[in-house]
């Protein structure tokens, strides 16, 4: 069963309270609410926008800047042909099942998951086991509308079976989901009605480009394809130097079947994707792997899941790669870098795990794939996917368009290849085969080295050979030695040509943003109605709250001056000069996650000093304007912590505001 997500004070996270706080503070709001809203579409308000911008900014610095990646911004409108070639038109689908009576539609894997989890909860209740508060609230809420939750004791063997199914839920295809629905007698949870068998539903939004409607297209479901199609130009831009990575941040669109998980599953979302192009020879080594090899990750491997379990293992990425658990250094390098990025954002490290894809879950061409999952009140949720897509994408686009999406490198040592070559005597060949000439020539060219070797021996012995040429005569064609010769020669290759493989870390910014909010959310003991969002200062939407002690215009002047100076330094700040008590004003900003507060008071008028308050500890220091601004700058940039500042500057105890 999905584990419970607790806050840093050990309380189960109360999602309803958090959600209402986030909407009240305008982090986000359902789109088109005046018209009744549309599932899976949300608008971000000011703190949500600032938070998203800060996450994206940190992403750019952590990946694009740090690794010299080549950022591109490709169009979201994509012609049908491109997505047909990439396989999306045929395969980018989820399984849905319909209730023919009510017309309701369910995503098949989510339905099986929801019903089995509900039954396991019911079993837990029936066994008299404590159901966690969040579990309880959830169950109560669902009981009203979900018929399937009953305090019903299950057989131990059934519990085990359900748990195994849940551990493998991402691995099932349509037929298997259909069988599970049948086997476990899963119905429409609201009406108890029968459901039709699962059918594939393509998640892309279709459109047409141009007024004639003649060019079919889609809103892109990922940013990746644009990057693959600019590969050649980027390689040129990079002066033919490998390896290199492209990166892109932009909206993607997926017509999710029944999005009911807030920002976690939406129909339009911001993605940040990297396509790292690497030479497949040499084990996909990464030049900077040494820098990360000792970083420890929490790994949930494929075999464990196939046994129906979810036990994780902590392991250094160096060991995971050397033992072959993670396929190669480049993939391992990015897993470690993803973990470091999430840490920088303030994601709770005990709520991060990397889950390896099971065979069915992975695209057939992928060599290995790991998801960074974050524990939230929705359970473990994939927030970053990291896949080795091999040479698939470049190969299919090259085959379709004829563009050479390859790397050509001069070899340091020319390569000498001993091989059997076929020489055709064109003067005799043409007149003999006439219109069939092309087909015969293609069949000859297609002969493998082994075939050529044995045919050479046959030619020497009998003076003629027969080869298969489908569609010509009876499918066999005889060739005499005056028409062709097969000889062994040495070919010297100075240029090496290869299709790079691609390692793709793919980030859903909205999922990361929401999970981060859950991870930093807590309430002060004894004051549960007041939420606090403990964002690290660099990621916080607003860095500083400026409060004049009272409505005295002299205080107001001082805070405006500080605000102006902070703005000059690019540090976001807000003045709250309302008549609410200082405690209330700070509480409001705790909910917005503002890490620092500056108060102007009578002492400020006297000696120009100000107090600086830390959101999390509520401790204050007092110092000159210059020192306070310097402290704010270093805290906002993440170069100092509050502990560092508190060591440097004298604590201010007199006027505790909360
Ligand atoms: N509907 C969505 N809403 C928000 N973010 C999404 C959505 N679908 C995908 N993402 C984000 O994009 C990232 C890369 O997409 P990917 O195709 O790997 O997801 P996915 O495997 O289809 O996700 P899921 O299985 O949850 O539908 C995911 O890790 C996730 O953060």
Automatic annotation (TrEMBL):
Signal peptide: none annotated. It catalyses: 2 ATP + H(+) = P(1),P(4)-bis(5'-adenosyl) tetraphosphate + diphosphate. Residues 204-525 form the Aminoacyl-transfer RNA synthetases class-II family profile domain. Keywords: Aminoacyl-tRNA synthetase, ATP-binding, Cytoplasm, Ligase, Nucleotide-binding, Protein biosynthesis, Transferase. It is found in: Cytoplasm. Its EC number is 6.1.1.14. One of its GO terms (biological process) is mitochondrial glycyl-tRNA aminoacylation. InterPro entries: aa-tRNA-synt_IIb, aa-tRNA-synth_II, aa-tRNA-synth_II/BPL/LPL, Anticodon-bd, Anticodon-bd_dom_sf, Gly-tRNA_synthase/POLG2, GlyRS-like_core, tRNA-synt_gly. GO terms for cellular component: mitochondrion. NCBIfam families: glyS_dimeric, PRK04173.1. Belongs to the class-II aminoacyl-tRNA synthetase family. This is glycine--tRNA ligase. It comes from Glutinoglossum americanum. The lineage of its organism: Eukaryota, Fungi, Dikarya, Ascomycota, Pezizomycotina.
């Amino acid at each position: 069963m999905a584990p419970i997500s607790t806050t840093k004070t050990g309380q189960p996270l109360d999602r309803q309270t958090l959600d209402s706080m986030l909407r009240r503070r305008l982090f986000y709001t359902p789109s088109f609410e005046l018209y009744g809203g549309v599932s899976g579409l949300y608008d971000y308000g000011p703190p949500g926008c600032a938070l998203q911008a800060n996450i994206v900014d940190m992403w750019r610095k952590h990946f694009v800047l740090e690794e010299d990646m080549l950022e591109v911004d490709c169009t979201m409108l994509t012609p049908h042909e491109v997505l047909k070639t990439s396989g999306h038109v045929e395969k980018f689908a989820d399984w849905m099942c319909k209730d023919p009576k009510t017309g309701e539609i369910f995503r098949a894997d989510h339905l099986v998951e929801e019903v089995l989890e509900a039954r396991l909860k019911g079993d837990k209740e029936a066994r008299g086991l404590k159901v966690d508060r969040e579990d309880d609230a959830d169950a109560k809420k669902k009981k009203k509308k979900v018929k399937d939750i009953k305090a019903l004791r299950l057989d131990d063997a059934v519990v085990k079976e359900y748990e195994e199914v849940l551990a493998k839920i991402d691995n099932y295809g349509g037929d298997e989901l259909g069988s599970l629905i049948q086997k476990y007698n899963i119905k429409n949870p609201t009406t108890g009605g029968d459901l039709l068998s699962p059918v594939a539903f393509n998640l892309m939004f279709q459109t047409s480009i141009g007024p004639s409607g003649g060019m079919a297209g889609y809103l892109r479901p990922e940013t990746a394809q644009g990057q693959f199609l600019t590969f050649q130009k980027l390689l040129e831009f990079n002066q033919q130097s490998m390896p290199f990575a492209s990166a892109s941040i932009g909206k993607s669109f997926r017509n999710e079947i029944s999005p009911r998980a807030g920002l976690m599953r939406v129909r339009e979302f911001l993605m940040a994707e990297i396509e790292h192009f690497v030479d497949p020879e040499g084990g996909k080594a990464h030049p900077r792997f040494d820098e990360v090899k000792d970083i420890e990750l929490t790994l949930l491997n494929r075999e464990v899941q196939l046994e129906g379990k979810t036990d994780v293992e902590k392991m250094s990425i160096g060991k995971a790669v050397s033992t072959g658990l993670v396929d190669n250094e480049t993939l391992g390098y990015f897993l470690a870098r993803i973990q470091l990025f999430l840490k920088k954002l303030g994601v709770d490290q005990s709520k991060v795990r990397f889950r390896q894809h099971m065979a069915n879950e992975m695209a057939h061409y992928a060599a290995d794939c790991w998801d960074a999952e974050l524990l939230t009140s929705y359970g473990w949720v994939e927030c970053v996917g990291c896949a080795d897509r091999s040479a698939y994408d470049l190969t299919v686009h090259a085959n379709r368009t004829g563009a050479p999406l390859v790397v050509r490198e001069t070899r340091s040592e020319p390569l000498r290849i001993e091989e059997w070559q076929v020489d055709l005597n064109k003067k005799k060949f043409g007149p003999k085969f006439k219109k069939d000439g092309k087909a015969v020539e293609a069949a000859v060219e297609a002969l493998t080295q082994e075939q050529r070797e044995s045919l050479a021996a046959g030619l020497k012995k009998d003076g003629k050979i027969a080869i298969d040429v489908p569609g010509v005569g009876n499918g066999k064609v005889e060739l005499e030695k005056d028409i062709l010769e097969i000889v062994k020669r040495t070919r010297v290759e100075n240029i090496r040509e290869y299709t790079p493989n691609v390692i793709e870390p793919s980030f859903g910014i909205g999922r990361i943003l929401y999970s981060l909010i859950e991870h930093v959310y807590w309430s002060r003991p004894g004051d549960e109605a007041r939420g606090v969002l403990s964002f690290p200062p660099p990621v916080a939407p607003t860095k500083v709250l400026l409060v004049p002690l009272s409505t005295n215009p002299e205080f107001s002047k001082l805070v405006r001056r500080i605000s102006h100076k902070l703005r000059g330094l690019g540090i976001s700040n807000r003045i709250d000069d309302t008549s609410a008590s200082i405690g209330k004003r700070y509480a409001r900003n705790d909910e917005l996650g503002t890490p620092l507060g500056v108060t102007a008071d009578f002492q400020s008028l006297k000696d120009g000093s100000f107090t600086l308050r830390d959101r999390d500890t509520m401790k204050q220091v007092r110092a000159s304007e210059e020192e306070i601004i310097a402290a704010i700058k270093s805290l906002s940039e993440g170069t100092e912590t509050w502990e560092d500042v508190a060591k440097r500057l004298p604590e201010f105890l007199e006027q505790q505001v909360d």
